[in-house]
């Protein structure tokens, strides 16, 4: 499963408003192993799935009568940096649902809509968040979503990201705390917080500008719109940190690359878009500029991902 970069609209998938998610070709896979088999060299065994394997299997047992008492052993591989705001945990959960459902009900494969709905319901029980990530990693491409206060957002539009655009990810190596963030924002929502209302308005407008910039194939306009989305996150909701702002300044100064924080929670990764033919050169300049001052930061060059089921964008909402 691909991971997801949010180009605009953090939290709007459950607050209401437009958000834009892009599936990235930094994938997480789950393969069921034969009984007694060891994981291949370089791959993680069941521990790579943490406690999620047990929890996902328990969720499926309540819905699929063919599921036995214990989950099968799995091998997990992942290219995505963990706890970085790129939905690596959602990619793992969706991959577990898909692999386990094939074991429990091999003759009745889950539809893309059911896969998204069940993965969303499962993760909502832990984090009380939205469904942008689940739709993005399954449908792939670039999604424009209209948020809902409960349930999955509505997919308003889906397009393939331009082939000649690359994505540069700057992983700050600082972890997020998404659970605490969501609790804080839900308290703001309940209190009718004016700054939250202002954030929703600015972020929704930025999402519209991001979507239009991609349709016009205008990378400069896309960078500006992503910058506006980042400014709304930082100035109105305190989602950024001094380190992330310093990394943004380094990227702009050294490589001319505007970056936006992907996801909430006070840490994680920044993402930027540039011509694919120039992405490695841009990344090299950025790595040299980071140098000894930021030894833990990692620069990753990737592209948009097609996704498992692009047809999900045309499916009716449940």
From TrEMBL:
<keyword id="KW-0963">Cytoplasm</keyword>
<keyword id="KW-0547">Nucleotide-binding</keyword>
<dbReference type="InterPro" id="IPR006204">
    <property type="entry name" value="GHMP_kinase_N_dom"/>
</dbReference>
<keyword id="KW-0418">Kinase</keyword>
<dbReference type="InterPro" id="IPR020568">
    <property type="entry name" value="Ribosomal_Su5_D2-typ_SF"/>
</dbReference>
<dbReference type="InterPro" id="IPR013750">
    <property type="entry name" value="GHMP_kinase_C_dom"/>
</dbReference>
<keyword id="KW-0067">ATP-binding</keyword>
<feature type="domain" description="GHMP kinase C-terminal">
    <location>
        <begin position="212"/>
        <end position="289"/>
    </location>
</feature>
<protein>
    <recommendedName>
        <fullName>Galactokinase</fullName>
    </recommendedName>
</protein>
<dbReference type="Pfam" id="PF08544">
    <property type="entry name" value="GHMP_kinases_C"/>
</dbReference>
<keyword id="KW-0808">Transferase</keyword>
<dbReference type="InterPro" id="IPR036554">
    <property type="entry name" value="GHMP_kinase_C_sf"/>
</dbReference>
<feature type="domain" description="GHMP kinase N-terminal">
    <location>
        <begin position="56"/>
        <end position="141"/>
    </location>
</feature>
<dbReference type="InterPro" id="IPR014721">
    <property type="entry name" value="Ribsml_uS5_D2-typ_fold_subgr"/>
</dbReference>
<comment type="pathway">
    <text>Isoprenoid biosynthesis; isopentenyl diphosphate biosynthesis via mevalonate pathway; isopentenyl diphosphate from (R)-mevalonate: step 1/3.</text>
</comment>
<dbReference type="InterPro" id="IPR006205">
    <property type="entry name" value="Mev_gal_kin"/>
</dbReference>
<keyword id="KW-0460">Magnesium</keyword>
<dbReference type="Pfam" id="PF00288">
    <property type="entry name" value="GHMP_kinases_N"/>
</dbReference>
<keyword id="KW-0443">Lipid metabolism</keyword>
<keyword id="KW-0444">Lipid biosynthesis</keyword>
């Amino acid at each position: 499963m691909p991971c997801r970069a949010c180009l605009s609209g953090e939290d709007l998938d459950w607050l209401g408003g437009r958000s834009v998610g892009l599936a990235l070709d930094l994938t997480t896979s789950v393969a069921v192993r034969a009984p007694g088999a060891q994981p291949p060299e370089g791959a993680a065994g069941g521990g790579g799935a943490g406690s999620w394997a047990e929890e996902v299997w328990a969720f499926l047992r309540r819905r699929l009568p063919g599921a036995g008492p214990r989950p099968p052993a799995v091998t997990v591989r992942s290219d995505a940096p963990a706890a970085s705001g790129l939905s690596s945990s959602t990619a793992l959960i969706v991959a577990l649902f898909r692999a386990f459902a094939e074991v429990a009900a091999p003759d009745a494969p889950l539809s893309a809509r059911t896969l998204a709905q069940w993965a969303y319901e499962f993760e909502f029980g832990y984090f009380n968040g939205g469904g942008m990530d689940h739709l993005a990693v399954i449908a792939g491409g670039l999604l424009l979503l209209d948020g809902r206060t409960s349930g999955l957002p509505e997919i308003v539009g889906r397009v393939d990201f331009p082939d000649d655009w690359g994505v540069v990810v700057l992983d700050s190596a600082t972890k997020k705390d998404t659970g605490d963030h969501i609790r804080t924002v839900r308290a703001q929502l309940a209190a009718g917080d004016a700054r939250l209302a202002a954030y929703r308005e600015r972020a929704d407008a930025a999402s519209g500008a991001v979507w239009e910039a991609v349709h016009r194939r205008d990378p400069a306009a896309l960078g500006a719109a992503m910058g506006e989305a980042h400014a709304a996150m930082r100035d109105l909701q305190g989602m950024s940190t001094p380190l992330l702002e310093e990394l943004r300044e380094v990227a702009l100064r050294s490589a001319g690359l505007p970056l936006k924080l992907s996801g909430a929670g006070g840490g994680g990764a920044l993402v930027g878009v540039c011509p694919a033919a120039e992405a490695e050169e841009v990344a090299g300049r950025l790595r040299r500029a980071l140098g000894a001052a930021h030894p833990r930061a990692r620069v990753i060059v990737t592209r948009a991902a097609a996704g498992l089921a692009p047809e999900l964008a045309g499916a009716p909402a449940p």
